[in-house]
């Protein structure tokens, strides 16, 4: 049976997600802002959840139509046979997102849809499931436009960037799917030297190691689709077994990480150890201005700290020119990439970017600056 799905992702990575969905057999693929619609059997949904490095969630369409009021949303939700989707013993959550939605309160709309689901259960099985807003077994999403609704059942469960790898983190860590997207946008390939000189808790290093060793990002976690009544356990077992067989043994992958903050290096080491990937990566405690290139050429990717707290802006403004000097002096032959929401970065580094890709790190609008380090030609 062919189902309709919507995969959400960080804004700016839709084209990469589209390619991934084509790779797992998705049909009728239609990218839009913040995600990609596609169609396929349950096997495609399972493979997308397991293999997508870019998606945030894979949602399966349960119903769609037009509405004008909260009562219309209630009626539409009540018509759907929710007990066919999940067992009454599973607690659930309803999340409503609106774009140009005319309703006064999305919270009230959420309440009405939740009531409809519970009332449907009462009608069919004479009992109702409980609500859990923290760790629900089942998530129902409603997407509202000016006059249309779509109801989805979430097949992912926890967001897909939660790989089950990173146990510890420092402030404002980069989400794994954004890190994976940046690695792809940089053109980096497994086997090419990769350096993150501001590695923090090691997100780029973990993602790069998993790509290099052909480890599917979802191998260590569970998914929402396992709790649904249409779950095909044999289909899932086959997909997961194939993915496990394709994993390469852990050997050094020319992936290098360093940070001036010793705590960051320790946390990165802990995360890599817990993921079983410590032998794929080389870590060191060193300031970005003193890093020695590990090879004659390669890809350098960094997510410099954002000047969010008072006083940090001035510190960063003093650091950027030193970073630029170090890159010019030592990194000729390297392609460098910086994700930041500080648009002064290239100017203060006195380097000219060849590309500026708009990306969103959560709600923060950022730029991925590409700066190709050609000997002596980057000065303005």
SSE arrangement:
Layout: E1 3-8, H1 14-23, E2 27-32, E3 35-40, H2 42-51, E4 57-66, H3 70-79, E5 92-98, H4 106-125, E6 138-144, E7 148-154, H5 176-185, E8 194-196, H6 203-212, H7 233-245, E9 255-259, H8 262-274, E10 281-285, E11 298-302, H9 312-330, E12 334-340, H10 345-349, E13 355-361, E14 364-372
Parallel strand pairs: 5-6, 8-9, 8-11, 9-10, 11-12
Antiparallel strand pairs: 1-3, 1-4, 2-3, 4-7, 6-7, 12-14, 13-14
Helix pairs in contact: 2-7, 3-4, 5-6
Give an overview in words.
- With 380 residues, the chain is an alpha/beta fold.
- The protein has two domains: 152 residues, VC0802-like (2-Layer Sandwich), CATH 3.30.2130; 163 residues, Vaccinia Virus protein VP39 (Rossmann fold, 3-Layer(aba) Sandwich), CATH 3.40.50.
- 32% of the residues lie in helices and 24% in strands.
- It has ten helices and 14 strands.
- It has a seven-stranded mixed β-sheet with strand order 2-3-1-4-7-6-5, covered by helices on one side. The chain has a seven-stranded mixed β-sheet with strand order 10-9-8-11-12-14-13, with helices on one face.
- Helix 2 runs parallel beside helix 7.
- The longest helix has 20 residues.
- The radius of gyration is 23 Å and the shape is elongated.
- The protein starts with a strand and ends in an 8-residue tail after the last strand.
